[in-house]
Design brief:
The complex is a heterodimer. Chain A has 22 helices and 19 strands. By secondary structure, chain A is α/β, with parallel strands linked by helices. In chain A, the strands form four sheets. In chain A, strands 5-6-7-3-8-9 form a six-stranded mixed sheet, sandwiched between helices. Chain A has a six-stranded mixed sheet with strand order 15-16-17-12-18-19, sandwiched between helices. In chain A, a hairpin with a 7-residue loop joins strand 1 and strand 2. Chain A is globular, with a radius of gyration of 24 Å. About 1% of the residues of chain A have low confidence. Chain B folds into two domains: 141 residues, no CATH class; 77 residues, no CATH class. By secondary structure, chain B is mainly alpha-helical. In chain B, 73% of the residues lie in helices and 3% in strands. In chain B, strand 1 and strand 2 form a beta hairpin. A two-stranded antiparallel sheet of chain B has the order 1-2. Classes of the chains: A alpha/beta, B mainly alpha. Chains A and B meet through helix 4, strand 15 and helix 14 of A and helix 6 and helix 8 of B.
Chain lengths: 562, 250
């Protein structure tokens, strides 16, 4: 039996007109039937490696390449992408741009490559049906690919790769737009594929997901291999992983609180459950059971209802108040209505009934731009926002639209650049920055408005741990200034660490609205059923620790995952 | 539920539309243009989507009809020689007849083509043309042109939302002019980035494969439709021949 399906020998790639190599003398062998994770900070070379394995270098992305590479016995350096398809395919990180644009339906899109390769119709139908079922989007088969949500599009492009059925599958940040249940399901699917003999290579930022599903972890830094080994070795060592998983943080915190039985930090859920001392005697709960709120509600939604023109109701009697200085997580599965509700908060959408008020004044027919000083939003796709020639000009655009003096505009820009760690990049073109820092530029542009409430839509998607730390600092600064933060995200651990309160939306209704610290067992079960649980809650539940107890408060404390 | 017209082979519908359009443009008089235009509207009526299609016709027809009547009626030179007073304004009757002819041709063009496009999935239309020898590259360009429109519209909407969410207000003409850069900039940059990434997507979907692609849909055709298309094509040739004869020999 062949023990190597992917073999790289001193592989170096330098993009055209760049002086430093994106991949620098990479040598590695990957065994078939395994899941290999590529991790590392932004700009480390993860995406470049994925693209190279699929045959995009140097034919598509021009540059110089040296060394050797073999994938399933074929060279991705000399062969075309199309010639490599029976051997390897890649799923890129941005789902919306992987839609071919020439298919009417999801089923046609998933089977498009097979049709182009001349596969018989019967086989195409079978493989498409299987791939759609695996990604749980069979019910969307007849929809237009352009009508899907971001998460659904992500599932569709993964299904298209699965339908090709090559021996090697490469994924570049596949979980970025998926909700937690789908992320877990994807992990299970990849494990099943590996068990059936497929080789899976995943570039990913989520260290906990990597620890749960990978057989091997390769850490890249500045285009070089920094570390290589099994997850329990690499992820358990922050210096090797160049970041700390949430499991590692929780285990370390448990050690500091004297509730850890193990001798070394855990990297997986199972190891955490085994390591927590369930009988630890603690004093009073370490978390307050209620959050101190300002009496002033900055955003108030009352009986909001909304349906799109097709008549399907999206929001049903939504009541929500967000208070000044508060941090709220708005959670829900893909398609639960989160984005629709968010667009109501600043008047991008108007409710068909009910009232939305900012600082007690109904939005009414005011244009969204008119309420930017009260409510602003950083959307997920920052390409829709960035247009200026420099980071400073981009950040200055928002304040220039407000009725504030030049000096005040300058102060806001300087402050926003500082809290987002962009002062040194102020004169750089936003598109010359790595994608993760571009997201910070978009965040700084909104922070400069100094709105009473700032909504962040999937702010951690694609961010490495350094950028997440910077984002956290920016959020902290905004909160200290009395502004409310509203997070719409699938990143449950980030939410549980950086928000006070959770609002759960299911099928257009708010089914849960409570401080994290006051969740009871029934509410935790509801959250688990809809979107899953943050790590601390999940471990506490697996350990049988009752909500409200001192031990539960300790395990689920925000500090545990900070 | 698709109507009998909707279920016709895409090429049958397309040939019928082309013949109607050719007849409307070749005809020099209203006596032919009026029934041809009516035939194109009846084609719309034969479709199951007639209500949806007819709903957009006023948007196409009213502005062009009003502008043509005014422009041709008022500005053509013979307005002073054969004036026709409407509400006190002198309009040329001959010029109005000319405007009517153009309007009928335009209506026929829009109704005939729009009905075909609205009742035929783009992929099926392209498949029908590809089965008759349309090169794959042309097929791709046509498909992209037709299908990329909704994608661009979604992106434009998302850009507008993103900029409004940071304070952009579009109200007066100056504000609209000022909004041009923040709205068009991301659209252009996004389109350029999309082109690159979509090219990658097409590579990954083996679009450049040289072998004969599998067609997922079997297009239903019949001998009767084949005869109908041949007859229509002969009619089309006859129309052109008649047109040339009238121009040079009559």
């Amino acid at each position: 039996m062949n023990t190597t399906i992917v073999s790289l020998t001193e592989l170096t790639f330098t993009y055209l007109r760049r002086t430093s190599a994106a991949l620098d003398e990479i040598s590695l062998d990957i065994a078939p039937g395994t899941v290999t994770a590529i991790i590392g900070p932004a700009g480390a070379g993860k995406s470049t490696l994925c693209a190279l394995l699929a045959g995009f270098m140097p034919q598509f992305f021009r540059g110089t390449v040296s060394g050797n590479a073999l994938v399933d016995g074929v060279s991705p350096i000399t062969e075309s992408v199309q010639a490599l398809l029976p051997h390897v395919t890649v799923v890129l990180s941005q789902a919306s741009t992987q839609i071919s644009g020439v298919c009417d339906t999801v089923a046609a899109e998933v089977g498009f490559a097979l049709a182009n390769m001349g596969v018989p119709v019967v086989d195409i139908r079978t493989r498409v049906a299987e791939a759609l079922a695996t990604m749980e989007i069979g019910h969307l088969a007849d929809r237009s690919p352009f009508q899907l949500s971001g998460g659904q599009q992500q599932r569709m492009v993964i299904a298209a790769a699965l339908a090709l059925n090559p021996p090697v599958l490469v994924f570049d940040e596949p979980t970025a737009q998926l909700d937690p249940p789908t992320v877990a399901a994807l992990g299970d699917t990849l494990r099943q594929l590996a068990a059936s003999g497929k080789t899976i290579i995943v570039a990913e930022q989520h260290l906990d997901w990597v620890a749960a599903y990978a057989d091997r972890v390769i850490v890249l830094e500045n285009g070089r291999i920094h570390a290589d080994g099994p997850p329990h070795t690499v992820i358990a060592d922050a210096a090797l992983a160049l970041g700390r998983s949430y499991a590692y943080r929780l285990a370390t915190y448990a050690q500091s609180q004297g509730i850890w039985l193990g001798t070394h930090a855990a990297t997986t859920h199972a190891a955490l459950v085994a390591g927590i001392d369930k009988d630890a005697a603690l004093g009073q709960p370490t978390r307050p059971l209620s959050v101190e709120r300002s009496p002033a509600g900055v955003l108030q939604c009352t009986s909001v209802q909304f349906a799109y023109p097709n008549g399907i109701p999206v929001l049903k009697d939504v009541d929500l108040t967000v208070y000044r200085g508060e941090r709220v997580a708005l959670l829900g599965r893909n398609g639960a209505g989160k984005s629709t509700l968010l667009r109501h908060f600043n008047g991008l959408l108007r409710p068909q009934s009910g009232v939305i008020a900012l600082n007690g004044i109904p939005i009414g027919t005011r244009a969204p731009g008119m309420v930017a000083q009260q409510m602003s939003i950083v959307f997920q796709d920052v390409r829709n926002q960035l247009f200026a020639a420099t980071v400073r000009a981009e950040v200055a655009y928002g304040p220039s639209l407000l009725q504030v003096s030049k000096a005040e505009q300058e102060r806001r820009v300087t402050t926003a650049l500082a809290i987002c760690g962009l002062t040194s990049d102020a004169d750089t073109h936003p598109y010359d920055l790595p994608v993760a820092r571009r997201r910070l530029v978009a965040t700084a542009a909104i922070m400069a408005l100094e709105s009473d409430i700032i909504a962040l839509d999937e702010p951690t998607a694609g961010l490495d741990s350094i950028s997440i730390d910077t984002l956290t600092q920016a959020m902290d600064a905004a909160t200290r200034a009395g502004r409310a933060i509203l997070l719409v995200t699938h990143d449950l651990n980030f939410c549980a660490t950086h928000t006070d309160r959770v609002v759960l939306l299911a099928e257009g209704r708010i089914v849960l609205d409570a401080p994290w610290s006051a969740l009871n067992d029934a509410q935790i079960a509801m959250l688990d059923a809809e979107v899953g649980l943050p790590l601390g809650f999940d471990v506490a539940q697996a350990c049988g620790i009752a909500a409200g107890s001192a031990l539960h408060s300790c395990v689920t404390a925000p500090a545990a995952l900070r | 539920m698709p109507s009998r017209y909707d279920r016709l082979h895409p090429l049958t519908k397309l040939t019928w539309a082309v013949v109607l359009i050719a007849a409307a443009y070749i005809s020099p008089t209203l006596w032919v243009s009026v029934p041809v235009c009516l035939a194109s509207l009846l084609t719309t009526a034969a479709s199951a989507r007639r209500v949806t299609i007819a709903r957009v016709y006023p948007l196409f027809f009213v502005p062009i009809t009003v502008s043509l009547l005014l422009i041709r009626g008022v500005l053509v030179p013979d307005v002073l020689t054969h004036p026709l007073l409407i509400a006190g304004y002198p309009l040329s009757s001959d010029a109005l007849a000319g405007a009517g002819l153009i309007i009928l041709r335009y209506c026929t063009l829009v109704a005939a083509l729009f009905t075909v496009i609205q009742t035929t999935p783009t992929a099926q239309l392209m498949q029908a043309l590809a089965e008759r020898g349309l090169p794959r590259s042309i097929e791709f360009i046509l498909l992209m042109a037709l299908q990329i429109i909704p994608d661009m519209k979604l992106r434009a909407d998302a850009i507008l939302e993103a900029q409004q969410s940071r304070g952009l207000v579009i109200a007066s003409l100056p504000s609209r002019i000022r909004a041009l850069v923040p709205l068009v900039g991301p659209l252009v940059v996004g389109a350029l980035v999309d082109v690159e990434e979509r090219s990658m997507a097409l590579e990954l979907r083996a679009f450049a494969a040289t072998n004969r692609p599998t067609r997922m849909d079997v297009l239903v055709d019949s001998t009767a439709q084949h005869i109908l298309r041949t007859t229509l094509l002969l009619l089309l040739v006859g129309l052109f021949a008649t047109s040339i004869c009238m121009r040079y020999w009559v």
